[in-house]
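USER:
Class, as today's exercise, take the chain set out below, and explain how the chain folds.
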Amino acid sequence: MLEASNNNELPVIPGKRYFTIGEVSELCGVKSHVLRYWEQEFSQLKPVKRRGNRRYYQRHDVILIRQIRSLLYDQGYTIGGARLKLTGEDASVDSNQSQQIIRQMRTELEDLLGILKG
């Protein structure tokens, strides 16, 4: 999901266990207030909170934030669309559309075969 071209402009994620919101902000190219907002919008994004409600993000959180950033900023998704893309609900919509197209093409090919035989 994260395109290689977008990955090149972002710094490499260090081999640490936990990252502060400031570090994640720099690693992902997103401001801190945006990260806090995304926590409310994306249920998958749950940083560990300790001492005085301070957020500590793990490596998988940083990767998820980069995916969200790519969906919103590079691929042009809305918040709702990105949420669907991450939960996989849009895959079922794409699957249904694909099945419908396949059925339609099959019907057209069978009609064409009937014409050729007749």
Observations:
- The radius of gyration is 21 Å.
- Residues 90-118 form one domain.
- The beta strands are 19-20, 48-50, 54-57.
- The CA atoms of residues 47 and 57 lie 5 Å apart.
